[in-house]
């Protein structure tokens, strides 16, 4: 466990370990839960489809394409849950493949109106 006070900035880094130097990594979705084995019942979305859901979530520049850096302000799930667990989905793409998911950034999909 990593102990951080409420409302402090938490900075994270995801690294891709591969012998292929032509890969890049992108943080697509991150959710938090008070339960390490249940990310469906009670969750808080930090980012979804590359779009920040939390106003404090931020992406930070990285010195290398195989490292993704991001952060947010620490929060808690009311007082009855002592811990917060993260689950993040990352996408790995070819470096400089601008048509890949890694280079699309925030992808918001809007539902169409089924009315007349």
Explain what the structure shows.
The chain is mainly β and 116 residues long. The strands form 2 sheets. A 4-stranded antiparallel beta sheet has the order 4-3-2-7, with no helix packed on it. It is elongated. It has strands spanning 9-15, 23-33, 44-48, 51-52, 58-60, 67-73, 85-94. It has a single domain (8-96), classed as Immunoglobulin-like, CATH 2.60.40. The termini are far apart. It is 0% helix and 39% strand. It is built from no helices and 7 strands. InterPro entries: ZP-C, ZP-C_dom, ZP_dom. This is DMBT1 protein. Keywords: Disulfide bond, Signal.
Give a short summary of the structure:
With 116 residues, the protein is mostly beta strands. The protein has one domain: Sandwich (Immunoglobulin-like). The protein has strands at 9-15, 23-33, 44-48, 51-52, 58-60, 67-73, 85-94.
């Amino acid at each position: 466990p990593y102990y951080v006070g409420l409302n402090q900035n938490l900075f994270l880094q995801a690294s891709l370990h591969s012998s292929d130097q032509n890969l890049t990594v992108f943080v697509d979705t991150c959710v938090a839960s008070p339960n390490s084995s249940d990310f469906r019942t009670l969750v808080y979305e930090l980012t979804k489809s590359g779009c920040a859901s939390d106003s404090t979530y931020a992406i930070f520049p990285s010195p290398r394409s195989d490292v993704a850096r991001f952060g947010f302000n620490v929060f808690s799930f009311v007082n009855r849950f002592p811990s917060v667990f993260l689950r993040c989905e990352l996408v790995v793409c070819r470096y400089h493949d601008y048509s890949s998911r890694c280079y699309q950034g925030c992808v918001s999909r809007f539902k169409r109106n089924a009315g007349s």
